[in-house]
Design brief:
Strand order of the largest sheet: 1-7-6-5-4-2-3
Distance between the termini: 21 Å
Shape: globular
Strand content: 5-15%
Helix content: 25-40%
Number of helices: 12
Bound molecules: pyridoxal-5'-phosphate
Structural class: alpha/beta
Length: 373
């Protein structure tokens, strides 16, 4: 395959020398979990995003699960309460809700952004609603003043799934005045899974917030429910970050703006060079709003397009082929009618996207796409 959807080897190549050196430091340092590299990463995340607290977790799903669990421990939510979630998202967003005994209420995406349609949120609010979950899907910030107003009017928390959009900014400030995704709402879950734009070399995640009480509970929950050794306030889990991953992330964090800038160049080159009436291109939004975790096109004959590209040496992936409410694990929601999410699941296709793609690469891929008939 000339153009795999993503080569992690190539994506990490620019950082390998630095990462090997820091790996040796960590190994020799003799402290491997929640040590000084993790503490430094938490500080740097706060500084970058413009939030007050960051708690490193074992992975992104745990970050989302634990932030909701912390709200339950603090009495802000109770099992059975409703959380509004986008119908067009990765299943992990919804798993975090149901894992806590909370009830997902699916709201359709906007056809322009594929993100939660904020104009449909208010009609989904009931007396049991406690939060709105926004997912910055494919790297595009999902945020506007209408969302804040609805949350305000009904006393709802806004929780962010920021697994895909590290470094994206909104043109509308968040609840505390910050502009970065991950610091817009009341709390956010981040993922550093290797394929994300800020990717570790293993599982890793974080919760970010301005709420000290919430951050403290998340930190305890990820450590068996214990803030003081051998004293267990909560029935917690083990979800902590390795120092090795934190050390790698500290290196990659230094370059994240440059990484995102190059992704934007790749995305613009795709948008300028793909021209095929069968294929609908994604919209960039305002400057900085999209960090292009994925470049996702739509095509009515998606499966045929995918096979054609594969045969021509272009690797693609589908994000995502089955919406959460149609999954076998969510039989109770299978009968819901969410036509746009369902249509997107049949039409979306993610082209190769990484900062290592050159202009020539993009033009070659685009010309293959343009010949699809
Ligand atoms: C990757 C991802 C997650 C889960 O993160 P992990 O680190 O893989 O557990 C959650 N939500 C979305 C939207 C994701 O893309």
């Amino acid at each position: 395959m000339k153009y795999p959807h993503l080569s992690l080897q190539k994506a990490n190549e620019p950082y390998m020398a630095e990462m090997k050196a820091v790996a040796a430091e960590v190994i020799e340092g003799g402290w491997y979990i929640r040590g000084k590299y993790v503490a430094r990463l938490e500080e740097q995340l706060c500084q970058y995003l413009g939030c007050r607290y960051a708690v490193a977790t074992g992975n992104g799903l745990d970050a989302l699960r634990l932030m909701l669990r912390a709200y339950i421990e603090l009495g802000v939510m109770r099992p059975g309460d409703e959380v509004i979630v986008p119908s067009n998202t990765y299943v992990a967003s919804v798993l975090a809700v149901t894992d806590n005994g909370l009830v997902p209420v699916f709201v359709e995406p906007s056809a322009d952004t594929y993100n939660l349609d904020t104009s449909l949120v208010e009609q989904a609010v009931t007396p049991r609603t406690r939060a709105i979950m926004v997912v910055h899907l494919y790297g595009r910030a999902c945020w506007d003043s209408r969302l804040k107003e609805v949350a305000d009017r009904h006393g709802l928390k806004i929780v962010e799934d920021n697994a895909q959009a590290f470094g994206a900014v909104s043109s509308v400030p968040g609840l505390q005045g910050a502009f970065h995704t991950g610091a817009l709402g009341d709390v956010a879950g981040l993922s550093f899974y290797p394929t994300k734009n800020l990717g570790a070399l293993g599982d890793a995640g974080a919760v970010t917030t301005d709420d000290k009480a919430l951050a403290d509970v998340v930190r305890a929950l990820g450590n068996y429910g214990s803030a003081v050794r051998y004293v267990n306030e909560y029935k917690g889990v083990n979800s902590r970050m390795d120092d090795l991953q934190a050390a790698f992330l500290l290196i990659k964090l230094k370059y994240i703006d440059e990484e995102n800038r190059r992704r934007a160049v790749v995305a613009r080159a795709y948008t300028e060079s793909i021209c095929n009436e069968r294929i609908l291109l994604p919209q960039a939004g305002e400057s900085g709003e999209h960090i292009w975790h994925q470049y996702v096109v739509r095509c009515a004959e998606r499966d045929r397009l995918m096979r054609y590209l594969e045969a021509e040496g272009v690797g693609t992936l589908i994000h995502y082929p089955i919406p959460p409410h149609k999954q076998q694990c969510y039989r109770e929601y299978n009968a819901l009618y969410l036509p746009l999410a369902e249509q997107l699941a049949h039409e979306v296709l993610s082209l190769p996207m990484s900062s290592y793609l050159t202009e020539d690469d993009v033009h070659e891929i685009a010309s293959v796409v343009n010949r699809f008939a």
